[in-house]
Amino acid sequence: EVQLVESGGGLVQPGGSLRLSCAASGFTFTSSAMSWVRQAPGKGLEWVSSIYSYIGNTYYADSVKGRFTISTDNAKNTLYLQMNSLKSEDTAVYYCAKGPRGDYSSWGQGTQVTVSS
Questions:
Q1: Three-state secondary-structure class, residue 11
Q2: pLDDT tens digit string along 68-81?
Q3: DSSP secondary structure string, 29-93?
Q4: Cα 86–chain centre separation
Q5: CB-based contacts of 43, cutoff 8 Å, min separation 6
């Protein structure tokens, strides 16, 4: 059974940083594309970033490019999202998803990120 468990969300001031983690189990993590997707209050799902760690490729939405970094620790089967220079518009529930952009087969439960002074 695929399991994805996010952690690391919280309240942060504008300009601050957070690192989200997603612990994965139940599948071959090292050969799977992984993504982060978010949902802001009252809005639909927004793709944030994807990583194909087996070929070393990463992709970012324009809204987060240069501020967020996606990475993996394959020894720990863990996906990360380092978020810097956070803005109020980054406030959302962040989900870890198994699969490339737009083709997700499993989701985590989500972690809340609130950017506010």
A1: strand
A2: 999 999 999 999 99
A3: GGGS-EEEEEE-TTS-EEEEEEEETTTTEEEE-TTTTTTEEEEEETTTTEEEEEE-S--GGG-EE
A4: 14
A5: 92
Task: Please report which helix (H) or strand (E) contains residue 25, including its range.
Answer: strand 18-25
Confidence check: pLDDT of 53 > 90: no
CA proximity to 94, closest of 24, 2, 1, 7: 7
Structure tokens at 23: 């612990």
40: which 2 tokens? 């802001």
Return the DSSP state at 109: -
d(CA 107, CA 32): 13
